[in-house]
Amino acid sequence: MYTEKVMDHFTNPRNVGEIENANGVGEVGNAKCGDIMRIYLDVQDNIIKDVKFKTFGCGAAIATSSMVTELVMGKTLDEALKISNDAVAEALDGLPPAKMHCSNLAADALHEAIKDYISKKGK
Amino acid sequence: MERIYFDHSATTPVDKEVAKVMLEYMTEKFGNPSSVHSFGRETRKAVEEARHSVAALLGAAANEIFFTSGGTESDNLALKGIAFANRKKGNHIITTAIEHHAILHACEYLEKQGFTVTYLPVDENAMVSVEDVKNAITDKTILISVMFANNEVGTIQPIKEIGQLAKEKKIYFHTDAVQAVGNCHIDVNELNIDVLSLSGHKIYGPKGIGAIYIRKGVKIESTQHGGSQERKLRPGTENVPGIVGLGKAAELASIELDQRISHLTNLRDKLIKGIQEKISDIKLNGHKEIRLPGNVNISFLYVEGESLLLNLDLKGIAASSGSACTSGSLDPSHVLLAMGLTHEVAHGSLRLSLGRGNTEADINYCLEVLPQILERLRSMSPLNAN
Amino acid sequence: MERIYFDHSATTPVDKEVAKVMLEYMTEKFGNPSSVHSFGRETRKAVEEARHSVAALLGAAANEIFFTSGGTESDNLALKGIAFANRKKGNHIITTAIEHHAILHACEYLEKQGFTVTYLPVDENAMVSVEDVKNAITDKTILISVMFANNEVGTIQPIKEIGQLAKEKKIYFHTDAVQAVGNCHIDVNELNIDVLSLSGHKIYGPKGIGAIYIRKGVKIESTQHGGSQERKLRPGTENVPGIVGLGKAAELASIELDQRISHLTNLRDKLIKGIQEKISDIKLNGHKEIRLPGNVNISFLYVEGESLLLNLDLKGIAASSGSACTSGSLDPSHVLLAMGLTHEVAHGSLRLSLGRGNTEADINYCLEVLPQILERLRSMSPLNAN
Ligand SMILES: Cc1ncc(COP(=O)(O)O)c(C=O)c1O
Ligand SMILES: Cc1ncc(COP(=O)(O)O)c(C=O)c1O
Ligand code: FES
Ligand code: FES
């Protein structure tokens, strides 16, 4: 069902956990299945210095969470904002059709976290 | 890696003896039972013997047993066959919210054909109330269909009382006993059952074969048309190896029933107790006592079912879950929701369904592995309070 | 006594390789394909491989193949599924008088549901005329169903031409190919077939499994309701051993097809010729050339089918007949009557359907025994002119 890459990220998820003084936090619930993901960012000089996640969800949800943190680590916010659901799924060598929606969780949570950072900074 | 199978409610391995007799009826005794010649005679005889074995398991007469392609077909035949044959008497059917989809979707189809269906609620243990059944009866009610035991949470329904009620009111009573057969004592006369569905692959018999018990005199019409097999109720060349295999599986179930029940109950209770001792924030789903001997269904708060399953699978344990994420559908298990579980709690449900091949060692291994997995998953969960 | 099996149109023995792979999927790889765990993954994969094998035999795409419980179910699903799904377009169906009962009785059911069915006649060779099909089409016609090859007399219909006609008129074309698959070259695209029924046990595969080919885009609805197996068109736990067995049988059929056709045609023609030379007052039923490679159907005047069968059986030969006396119904074969045979001649019909296991020696033995039996029976017959 899942690709080797998905199983790798599922069994050894990268960047699990919380960042204590995160300056950007995003949480989304997956409307389709009720799953939840939270992303913590440490942004310095417009660059994502550190990122961590917590996820309540299926194998695909955990793998996409892990993958998205790996994809954005060290990236600028602009670069991070360009990461789409499809890009996350692609980086995992694809997801089963019924599981494509799970990748929304990861990309949306990331985008929420960046938004959170920008709005906090603006204040 | 050794693999441990805890998904017997999904399907069971075919018993070695069953497989052996099936093989004989595939390659050697392969005749069509409708044929006049010796090849036909030997399979015709075998089919009738199997019919007797299935009947014996249910306390029925052989001519009240008809072979189908499985539990789903038996359920469809029971509901549609009775509904259409008794349309003149009434158009109301009573069932429950926790039936298998074979029943629920057949009911939805019947609603489109002009029937009215009452879906009874269940309590927090997934138990149907006899009082609710009684109150739902109208003068248009022609059929009550209540499952014997639930496939997800294992709760066993008050079949005898519902059967009694139906009998008094002269309404047909069907029960989907796919999970109960081979796991519970069933006597269709004692329990007042008019029609009953069963499936071969849940009782160490083959997939693709099932049976329906139809009490003599019940008015029912066929849903499939063709030749005159199964007294025209279920046309199509008889699946002889499947039938013979089901017959053998029924025979074994009759012989081993008491032993299976005590073995499974023992393992089940050990597993439940162990989980309760080792893991916090859990919820046992289904009735504490009145449940299938091999059924364990537990919600683990803060985790999601599919990731739990995948982790167990990586450790060699096969199980199932009522999570939406395993089914590709929008909602988690309709059974868990009907019992009043929230989406989140339903999401974290795990079903471990034990079978006759399982051992204490299997239980111990599971009790060793499960806490580690939960710790890992809970440490990743945004829902975890700690 | 050695037994010779000449009833391959009724059913065939399961091929040894087929049985072997089925056994593996009964006792070892027994998982439910819907399960998330490794037991489920291995059977899910096997089911998809079997789907490819069946598709390859028909020149179809794998996602156009759906597994059912047999030819009867495939026929029922094709007719009812298309009829109900296209009711708004029209209510007229065209079929023939010589279809299998799975088609004829499904049509009768549909007539009760408000559909109109035209049953086309056939000529003395059991051949349908394309012209007749054309003339029967109205602006309400939604489906044409013509069998590929007749199970009793073996006549092969002008499928390609009928398919072409249906395509031009934008009417769905279904063919019951239960007898043709594995005996004829079939390419659904070349022949313009939209929907096709086949059955496992007629091609050295298992009983209780069949398939339906449905061209992508054809509007059809399910007749059985339940889980989401077979993309919801055909719910119920997949009969994995049956499916895997059918897949293997289809694979073998693909490989051996040319060889089977030439072997059977050779034996068939030898048998027909031998009977014609040795026995008088006979009539070959079905088309002389355009017939199934293994089908011999002959009426022996002045004798009755059942007594012929019983006598052959006593000599170890298994065959079948279109006699009413073998079926328990009032009339002899509807196929023979549709071809214009009188009751008497139809009564004396014998079908010898050959299979890949038959040899020249079997044919010789039959040619030795048959004349003696006929002499005996005819000497008893009041109809015998001499
Ligand atoms: C309670 C219940 N009813 C019906 C069925 C359907 O049986 P089958 O899948 O054999 O058609 C099942 C099993 O899937 C079941 O558990
Ligand atoms: C032409 C034809 N159609 C349909 C069927 C029905 O197939 P099954 O008996 O496998 O359901 C048969 C065989 O009995 C047949 O010969
Ligand atoms: S997050 Fe629920 S299905 Fe993937
Ligand atoms: S004479 Fe006995 S059935 Fe025909």
Which labels suit this protein?
heterotrimer; A: 123 residues; alpha+beta; Sufe protein. Chain: A; 3-stranded antiparallel β-sheet; 5 helices; B: 386 residues; alpha/beta; 7-stranded mixed β-sheet; 12 helices; 12 strands; globular; binds pyridoxal-5'-phosphate; binds FE2/S2 (inorganic) cluster; NIF_FeS_clus_asmbl_NifU_N (chain A); iron ion binding (chain A); NIF_FeS_clus_asmbl_NifU-like (chain A); FeS cluster assembly scaffold protein NifU (chain A)
Describe this structure in words.
The complex is a heterotrimer, with one copy of chain A (123 residues) and two copies of chain B (386 residues). Chain A is α+β, with helices and mostly antiparallel strands and 123 residues long. Chain A has a single domain, classed as Sufe protein. Chain: A. Chain A is 45% helix and 20% strand. Chain A has five helices and three strands; from the N terminus they run H-E-E-E-H-H-H-H. Chain A has helices at residues 4-11, 59-72, 77-81, 85-91, 102-122; strands at residues 24-29, 36-44, 47-56. In chain A, strand 1 (24-29) and strand 2 form a beta hairpin. The model of chain A has no long low-confidence stretch (mean pLDDT 92). Chain B has 386 residues and is of the alpha/beta class. Chain B contains twelve helices and twelve strands. In chain B, the strands form three sheets. Chain B has a seven-stranded mixed sheet with strand order 2-8-7-6-5-3-4, sandwiched between helices. Chain B has a three-stranded antiparallel sheet with strand order 9-10-12. In chain B, helix 6 links the parallel strand 5 (141-145) and strand 6 (172-176). The structure holds pyridoxal-5'-phosphate (PLP) (2 copies) and FE2/S2 (inorganic) cluster (2 copies). The site of one pyridoxal-5'-phosphate has 14 residues of chain C, from helix 3.
